[in-house]
Design brief:
The protein is of the alpha/beta class and 298 residues long. Helix content is 33%, strand content 30%. It has a six-stranded mixed β-sheet, with helices on both faces. Strands 2-1-4-5 form a four-stranded antiparallel β-sheet, covered by helices on one side. Strands 12-13-11-14 form a four-stranded antiparallel β-sheet. Strand 7, helix 6 and strand 8 form a beta-alpha-beta unit. The two termini are 37 Å apart.
Length: 298
């Protein structure tokens, strides 16, 4: 069995007495796009910075490419592309100067002609003018510089922390297509975001983090199909308050003769309960990721 590209084993980080992340354990397989979701302050960026040894863990361990994140940091980073949630550059430099400077840090980019070709290819795709100064760029265009910078050396692993901030919807779609193309080449992607629709449309699996702790790790399809169903029911008469209080039912809302809720459990138990009502309409479907996410946070 192939070694996971990323492995976390009870990874923990405290800032003094303040919790950063606690006992995180999961793995990311080669060639998958792995979503890492949670609201601001949940511990996503702390996890990423710890993986990259920008900060050191308090306890636990982690490996990238089977190598220890601390002892083998230099070797690991040669094959990792990283886009932080906020990017800061030398304002007086032009885009092409900055990207060429960045490429010089990677031994694998000795062939500068190949590096130059990839720079032009990515900048053209993202509609980024390489002749402009950094100080003249909008927030969205600075984010594009970060994307190109992270992918310039053809890394085996891409770690993206809130990558779409500042990108318009058209450019977001183009960026997602770029990520899918990289995955087809065998690149592994760790995609951290609080925008759930992005994760739902792009990722194979997802880890949900809450208050620094892991809540759930599963495939997108399993989270939606095997965990909960969204139910909408209409009856001929008024539905009694509290009628849908019970095992397996959450987030129930009753308004007159209609009710909506999330259900997890034996579907036959649900149908037996619904059979007691004189129904005029019934819809049972998969919830979207945002509904599941809000359930986990309740």
């Amino acid at each position: 069995m192939a070694t996971p590209v990323i492995t976390l084993n009870k990874l923990t980080k405290y800032y003094g007495k303040t919790r950063g992340i606690l006992d995180l354990s999961f793995s990311v397989e080669e060639g998958e796009i792995f979503g890492f979701i949670g609201p601001n302050g949940a511990g996503k960026s702390t996890t990423i910075r710890t993986l990259l040894s920008l900060i050191y863990p308090t306890s636990g361990s982690a490996a990238i490419f089977g190598l220890d994140i601390i002892k083998d940091r230099v070797k690991i980073l040669q094959d990792v592309g990283y886009l932080p949630s906020e990017v800061f550059y030398y304002d007086s430099m032009r885009v092409r100067e900055l990207l060429r400077y960045s490429a010089s840090f990677y031994k694998k980019t000795k062939n500068m002609e190949e590096c130059e070709r990839r720079m032009h290819e990515l900048c053209e795709l993202l509609e980024l003018d390489i002749n402009r100064k950094i100080e003249d760029l909008s927030y969205g265009n600075r984010k594009k510089v970060g994307i190109v910078q992270g992918m310039l050396h053809s890394p085996k692993l891409l770690i993206l922390d809130e990558p779409t901030g500042g990108l318009d919807p058209l450019m977001q779609a183009r960026f997602f297509e770029l990520i899918r193309r990289e995955r087809e080449k065998g690149v592994t992607v760790l995609f951290s975001s609080h925008i759930l629709s992005e994760v739902q449309n792009l990722c194979d699996r997802v880890a949900i983090i809450r208050d620094g702790q892991l809540v759930q790790v599963d495939s997108i399809s399993a989270l939606r199909e095997n965990t909960y169903k969204r139910v909408y029911a209409e009856a001929e008469g008024e539905i009694p308050a509290g009628y849908f209080d019970g095992d397996g039912i959450t987030a129930a809302e009753i308004q007159g003769n209609s009710a909506t809720f999330l259900f997890s459990g034996n579907i036959n138990d649900l149908l037996s309960k619904l059979a007691s009502l004189s129904l005029t309409n019934l819809i049972i479907e998969e919830p979207d990721l945002e509904e599941l996410f809000m359930h986990y946070y309740r």
